[in-house]
Amino acid sequence: MFSDALLLLPKALGETVYMVGVSMVIASAIGIPLGVLLLATGKNQILELGIANKTLSAVVNCVRSIPFIILMVAIIPFTRLVVGSSIGTTAAIVPLIIASIPLIGRLVETSLREVPYGLVEAALSMGATPYQIIRRVLLPEAMPSIVSQLTTVIIVLIGESAMAGAVGGGGLGDLAIRYGYQRFNPEVMLATVIVLIVLVQMIQLLGNLLAKKLNKK
Asked: How far is CA 5 from CA 62, 95, 174, in A?
């Protein structure tokens, strides 16, 4: 039984990478602009919009406050509407994306706040538009921090994908539960944990290297 489970390990790893990869790409495409909006529309910022900023911030906080396992169950009808099923690796991507978007938005906002406002003021004094400031000042200066934050999000997604696997989402979590926990096979659990640890360490290392390379200071 242990050897049979080990044969399923590469497939489970592939499913986890698929879930995390697709979720991260889509969530980043939405979450990074969201983070820019959260900062740019804030008080005393380049696109100050008080009511819109507070509304957007409230929505982000509401979604972030929902535990992932509850969110995954709560949006089953929406997941089924989007992908035609509420079970499987593709179905698990939907709640992963929804959970990640506000997290990425807040982390990107935090990274952008680290950029000295003097740089923004200097750009404004030279007649730069808000779009130019965002593109040529804020994002380039904050990019090392943003990469570090996104690395953290990927690691969080790996953990959440394992949780999704526990309720039929596939991946390493599904393998650990079905072949390890439910069949009283601790070796499978251990093998899964080792693979997850190695995966996280590799991602963290690559993220640190990329952030260091982008850091011009």
From this structure: 39, 27, 11
Distances in whole angstroms, Cα of residue 50 to Cα of each of 24, 33, 47, 105, 164:
29, 18, 9, 18, 37
Residue pLDDT tens, the chain, 217 long: 556 667 788 888 999 999 999 999 999 999 999 999 999 999 888 888 889 999 999 999 999 999 998 999 899 899 999 998 888 888 899 999 999 999 999 999 999 999 998 999 899 899 899 999 999 999 999 999 999 999 999 999 998 988 887 667 788 888 888 877 777 778 888 888 899 999 999 999 999 999 999 887 6
Rounded Cα distance, 202 and 179, in Å: 25
